[in-house]
Fold this sequence. Notes:
Strand content: 5-15%
Bound molecules: pyridoxal-5'-phosphate
Number of helices: 14
Number of domains: 2
Number of strands: 14
Structural class: alpha/beta
Low-confidence stretches: none
Order of helices and strands: EHHEHEHEHEEEHEHEEHHHHEHEEEHH
Oligomer: single chain
Strand order of the largest sheet: 2-10-9-8-5-3-4
Largest sheet: 7 strands, mixed
CATH architecture of the largest domain: 3-Layer(aba) Sandwich
CATH topology of the largest domain: Aspartate Aminotransferase, domain 2
Amino acid sequence: xxxxxxxxxxxxxxxxxxxxxxxxxxxxxxxxxxxxxxxxxxxxxxxxxxxxxxxxxxxxxxxxxxxxxxxxxxxxxxxxxxxxxxxxxxxxxxxxxxxxxxxxxxxxxxxxxxxxxxxxxxxxxxxxxxxxxxxxxxxxxxxxxxxxxxxxxxxxxxxxxxxxxxxxxxxxxxxxxxxxxxxxxxxxxxxxxxxxxxxxxxxxxxxxxxxxxxxxxxxxxxxxxxxxxxxxxxxxxxxxxxxxxxxxxxxxxxxxxxxxxxxxxxxxxxxxxxxxxxxxxxxxxxxxxxxxxxxxxxxxxxxxxxxxxxxxxxxxxxxxxxxxxxxxxxxxxxxxxxxxxxxxxxxxxxxxxxxxxxxxxxxxxxxxxxxxxxxxxxxxxx
Length: 382
Ligand SMILES: *Cc1c(COP(=O)(O)O)cnc(C)c1O
């Protein structure tokens, strides 16, 4: 027998009370029962996004909402700035190009956050730009981007801010309205602790005005249609009903814990993980601006086959973590610490990492990483 654990930045583990919801008989969506359910979900999503705007629910993964953001707000030839800090930032560039936009891409060294000066220089030399497209947390490198600074520059130059908050919303404090974000996006299989299949997108008044002027073709992801349906507690097409029932429960859990407490828990788990990594003599990729969602760790030179770390953890010990993607494949591994995750998930993950590093020939003094984790918890006020 081998018990399994999931420490990946999406999908994240499902709480037991959410799993049981998916065994219910299906509910029909054009009914008062569904409308009542959806009305509650609408309120919960506003709380999660910290916005007064409606949050639209789409039946797609997170990328669907990214696609919708581009197709609903822009027209062919529009110039936008994309911040490419890794695989997900690169996705903004790809989507923009596919729709015939003209993206000016700022490509960062993997593990680095954008420097506000660097962004401002690019904005200044591209005065005809419409928007900045970025990630609040770049999951592929474990970097937290400076969202308030990005918003400040956008405001100064009258640009829209389009934020992929898929591993940020519900992970750390990212108040959409207070920061002045024009578009904020998340997905179900991340901090919301439900399976993949739902994405979420909210627009500011300014972004809704852009929607009116956009000339790109859109049909399934027409946000205007969704907004009209939402005003009647409905969706334009058949919603992913079971996932929305799970969402109701997950939003309740977040409300009960309190958003700020959720953020404090994630921060503690992230600090414990980083302390363990340092105690084991390993290096964090995003050491200057680490994301509270996920910690990316450089594979030490003693281990030649970097992919063996996540493979051994999963196949030998039952702990699934993420490896690196594209140019970072085999060079990093990533430990996630958000969603349905608490102190003992981290303790387990780090103990498994110690065994694995030892198996692969990296010198480990057993308990050093775990000790750092426990010390972090003992010293915390939570
Ligand atoms: C998970 C993730 C996405 C969305 O990926 P999907 O596979 O479409 O759900 C986008 N951006 C970031 C930052 C992510 O972490």
